[in-house]
Specification:
The protein is of the alpha+beta class. It is built from eight helices and 30 strands. The protein has helices spanning 2-20, 135-140, 446-474, 476-497, 502-521, 530-539, 544-559, 567-587; strands spanning 24-28, 32-34, 39-45, 50-53, 60-75, 78-91, 95-99, 103-106, 109-112, 116-121, 141-147, 158-166, 171-179, 186-191, 199-203, 206-220, 224-228, 232-244, 250-260, 264-268, 285-293, 297-298, 304-314, 330-332, 336-344, 347-360, 364-368, 372-377, 382-387, 391-395. Strands 11, 12, 14, 15 and 16 form a five-stranded antiparallel β-sheet that branches. Strands 21, 23, 24, 25 and 26 form a five-stranded antiparallel β-sheet that branches. Helix 5 (502-521) packs parallel to helix 8 (567-587).
């Protein structure tokens, strides 16, 4: 019997010691998730504490929480206590991130959680759940990537057009990109889509509205199966619920949803080896070749330009032009490269050119050999060769080409020194047109006396300006008012520039109103409460209607962040704010 009592006392003692240990830890629903998924994190403690500080959740957006729950129970005489803070997070981009430590004060001791590593991958396909409240949204909004060709040749242009299809049943308030494709193994260029209008179309046989979000031209740089990463959006929308209003219309429910265009795979074919020219440099498309000199007759040591141009439709920026080979008696400089290329949905179109500066050294006729250029023609799926005509350059005047001696047979193949003419400095003038100046002195002229006396006359003016500046700087109250007025104008101007951007507009408008009051009523930020503002304006003899309008604008600034507002309502609030400020300025005494 005594042994049983001893065991019981020992068990109670051990339980009290264990229950006295403080536990504070963080638990996550998963450590690997897609950019379109949500993460739950719980901060649990077995004793109550104060001053809970969560981490800053960098690279995540808090979409829910903190939710607090407390569990307190007794089992076999042992107390069990648990307190939990819960957050729901949405990743903002892909990558490997670390959730930092959270802290709490328990019995005057600071406890910290262990950092947790989270891996965020590309968007994943989610199974549909008919019981999910977001199911209606998922069935009526679709982000689609339309690819012009899924089996192109290497360096053949393809286009990817991203369209957002929205059913007439729902309304999208705003959206933002949270993951942008990187197009690995492609040369890419985005096409400007600003100013695109919503269009009517069909999706899987049903009527939809759609908006073109992105247009991208891609040139594959590798063969085989290449992956096109998805575009991912975060959308805020309104969908009809099962409830109806008093008129029988369905009430709308606000829903946030992440949509993805999904991964796309294309199979890039290699260019055929059969018939591939030796000098082929990777040009794919349809091209024309032109070789043209700026002149065909000139004198020795006079220069001309030789232009090699390829024009057409294809991967113009992704291959090199053929090099020219000229006789050794022609001095050739490194070419100047120019590109005049536009990129649209059909790919690159335009021309590229190399311009060589050539200087003949001796008199004579010089044939410029023809230049050859080969490319792969997509229409015929075969290689084609373009060849320029031979060009004759006639050097009329200049020294003759030295005759090579038998002992120096390489002379004709080496570059010769330039022979200078005896009249090489003939362009320098040896006679001048200088004329003597008249006998006139600057000393004691009117201009001389004016320049002498001006500094002395400016001294009183400088003293006056300095005195006014000192008085202005000493006026602390006036400076404060001027500064606040400047800030009010600044924020009101910022609000006007932000028309159409709801959150930025109303933040700027609210700051403008507060700074105006601080300037006009000479009050501090701590006094900017609704009751005190009304008292201050009443004390300045401002009419009730104007005061009510001012308070109404401030309420609009607060409510607008949580309700959908169009640009017409923003313009009305801006005009109302400008009018109210003018009336207060006129009535305040």
């Amino acid at each position: 019997m005594n042994s049983i009592k001893h065991i019981t006392l020992l068990f109670i003692l051990i339980s009290s010691i264990v229950s006295g240990q403080v536990k504070f830890e963080a638990k996550v629903s998963k450590t690997k998730l897609g950019v379109n998924e949500r993460l739950r994190i719980d901060f649990e403690m077995n004793q109550d504490g104060d001053n809970f500080n969560p981490p800053n959740f960098a690279n995540f957006t808090v979409i829910g929480g903190p939710n607090q729950s407390v569990s307190n129970s007794w089992i076999n005489g042992v107390r069990s206590y648990k307190k939990t803070y819960t957050y729901f997070l949405a990743p903002t981009k892909r990558g490997n991130f670390t959730l930092a430590q959270a802290t709490i004060n328990i019995k005057n001791e600071i406890y910290k959680t262990t950092p947790i590593k989270i891996q965020v991958t590309a968007a994943i396909d989610k199974p549909k759940d008919p019981n999910d409240p977001n199911y209606l949204a998922s069935e009526n909004i679709h982000l689609v990537a339309e690819i012009s060709k899924t089996s192109p040749y290497l360096n053949e242009a393809i286009t990817v057009v991203y369209k957002l299809y929205v059913s007439p049943k729902i309304a999208v308030d705003n959206w933002n990109e949270i993951d942008i494709p990187r197009y690995n193994d492609f040369w890419s260029q985005n096409i400007n889509t600003q100013g695109q209008q919503v269009q009517n179309g069909t999706y899987k046989g049903e009527e939809y509205r759609y908006l073109v979000l992105r247009k991208t031209v891609l040139y594959p740089q590798k063969t085989g199966k290449l992956n096109i990463e998805p575009l991912t959006l975060d959308l805020s929308m309104r969908v009809p619920s099962k409830r109806r209003d008093i008129f029988g219309s369905f009430l709308m429910t606000r829903v946030s949803r992440t949509v993805s265009a999904g991964n796309k795979t294309i199979n890039v074919k290699a260019l055929p080896e059969a018939g591939k020219p030796v000098d082929f440099t990777g040009a794919v498309g349809s091209f024309r070749l032109s070789v043209s000199p700026s002149k065909t007759e000139l004198d020795a040591t006079e220069s001309f330009q030789l232009k090699v141009r390829v024009k057409g439709n294809g991967n113009l920026k992704l291959f090199k032009l053929p090099k020219v080979t000229l006789p050794s008696s022609l001095e050739v400089y490194e070419p100047e490269h120019k590109e005049n290329v536009n990129t649209n949905l059909s790919g690159m179109r335009g021309s590229i050119e190399d311009t060589y500066t050539v200087v003949p050294q001796f008199k004579g006729k010089y044939p410029l050999p023809s230049i050859s250029f080969s490319y792969f023609d997509l229409k015929t799926e075969s290689y084609k060769r373009l060849t320029s005509n031979e060009i004759i350059i006639n050097v009329l005047n200049g020294p003759a080409v030295p005759v090579s001696s038998p002992g120096n047979s390489s002379l004709s193949n080496s570059k010769q020194a330039v022979v200078l003419n005896s009249d090489q400095f003939a362009f320098i003038k040896t006679n001048t047109n200088f004329k003597p100046l008249k006998d006139r002195y600057f000393f004691k002229t009117n201009l001389f006396w004016s320049l002498l006396l001006c500094p002395f006359l400016a001294i009183p003016l400088a003293i006056l300006i300095r005195k006014k500046k000192a008085n202005r700087e000493a006026d602390a109250s006036g400076n404060k008012i001027r500064k606040a007025n400047k800030l009010a104008r600044k924020y009101l101007s910022s609000a006007k520039k932000s028309l159409g951007e709801k959150e930025a507009f109303y933040i700027a408008l609210e700051k403008a109103l507060h700074n105006y009051l601080k300037a006009k009523l000479r009050i501090e930020t701590s006094d900017l409460s609704k009751d005190k503002i009304r008292v201050f304006l009443k004390g300045k003899s401002v009419e009730n209607a104007v005061v009510n309008d001012f308070e109404g604008i401030l309420e609009s600034c607060e409510l607008a962040r949580y309700t959908p507002i169009d640009i017409v309502a923003m313009q009305e609030d801006y005009n109302k704010a400008a009018k109210t400020i003018a009336l207060i300025d006129k009535q305040a005494r």
